[in-house]
Amino acid sequence: MRYYSIQHLTRFDYEHPVCESAMEIRMQPRGDGNQRCLTFSLSVSPRCRVFSYRDHLANQVHHFDIPGDHRQLVVVAHSLVEQQPLGAVPNRLSPAAWQELDVLLAQGDFWEMLLPSTFAEPTEALRALAAEWKIVRRDDPLSMLHEISRDVYNHFEYLPRSTKVDSPIDVALGTRRGVCQDFAHIMIALARMVGIPCRYVSGYLCHGDEPEIGSDERNAPSATHAWVEAFLPRLGWVGFDPTNDLVANDRHIRTALGRDYADVPPTHGVYRGKTESELSVAVHVESSEAAPPFDETMPVPEDWSIVVERAHEPLPLASPLLQIQQMQQQQ
Questions:
Q1: 308 pLDDT exceeds 50?
Q2: Per-residue pLDDT averaged across 262-283, rounded?
Q3: By C-alpha distance, which of 246, 251, 248 is closest to 214?
Q4: Three-point CA angle 281, 182, 322, nearest 5°
Q5: Is the pLDDT score of 316 beyond 60?
Q6: Which of 10, 44, 183, 220 is the most buried (most CB within 10 A)?
Q7: 238 with 287, same domain?
């Protein structure tokens, strides 16, 4: 059993005061499967009342509105998570697993994770990649997923900031570069093309002292992470991390599930005003074998790595509510 303490800081700095901000936050780790969220705390400055609800996939969503003038918005989330070890995932299933999968799909409600979505759609570039990698039903669905994960890892360069938070799938496909968000979308779209239900997982990856065999864990150590879950006969939902060519394990901490990133950004909101803004993000994950005390003061460690990205150009004044375009890209 492992325990993870997670601190996640997000700060929006506005060049000129904005008169209102409304935002949704998806940072609370899920409590299902082998994972339990023991404690969670969310702090917002300027102070406001924070509400929450569960969406149809049981993601915990916090939301708030700040009606007064402000030049900075700071959100700090602190979580304590308990993880049980996951069972081993085999390398393959029997060839009959394709038929078993189709029977399960006919009996269940999986259409949402089978259809194209905003960032996981079968473009011409994706179809060309599928032809290059011979992505057709063969062998069995599990060995095919292992193969897709390995191919993404081997043929795509991990390069932070090579894509943007809202980049379509063709950007990474054209350059063969991207981050975990892009790699997850590519794997999801390829798997759905052969009828395997796949969903996007937003969360964190705790980097161990000894990396997994066959992986140098390419994602940034101080950032959110994204991977894939695929539904398989006899196994249920199984996690695959194509960024690192791993089967998801007890170091993968899940915060939200969706069709793709568009469903589960850590922050998403709007503000009223015309100004440029700057986004700063810091993530710190610590692992221990015993449950650490929960510190509600949430001090920011000096060794946090701050990632700063300039905002897109603001929308014209004709739009009274401006979308915050600096959602956090998952590295």
A1: no
A2: 92
A3: 246
A4: 50
A5: no
A6: 183
A7: no
- Same domain for 106 and 173, yes or no, is yes
Residue 88 lies in a domain: no
Contacts of 162 (CB under 8 A, 6+ apart): 172, 175, 177, 178, 179
The answer to which of 169-183, 223-237, 272-286, 294-308 has the lowest mean pLDDT is 294-308
At 180-218, the pLDDT tens digits run 999 999 999 999 999 999 999 999 999 865 454 445 667
Strands 236-241 and 51-54: unpaired
Q: Which amino acid is at 323?
A: Q
pLDDT in tens, 75-96: 999 999 999 998 899 999 999 9
Same domain, 54 and 103: no
Domain CATH for 310: 2.60.40.2250
Neighbouring C-beta atoms of residue 290, cutoff 10 Å: 7
Whether 282 and 203 have beta carbons less than 8 Å apart is answered as no
* Residue range of the domain that includes 229: 97-263
Confirm if 120 and 189 have CB atoms less than 8 A apart. yes
Q: Strand pairing of 20-25 and 60-66?
A: antiparallel
Q: Distance (Å, rounded) from C-alpha 319 to C-alpha 321?
A: 6
Specify whether 177 is located in the same domain as 305.
Answer: no
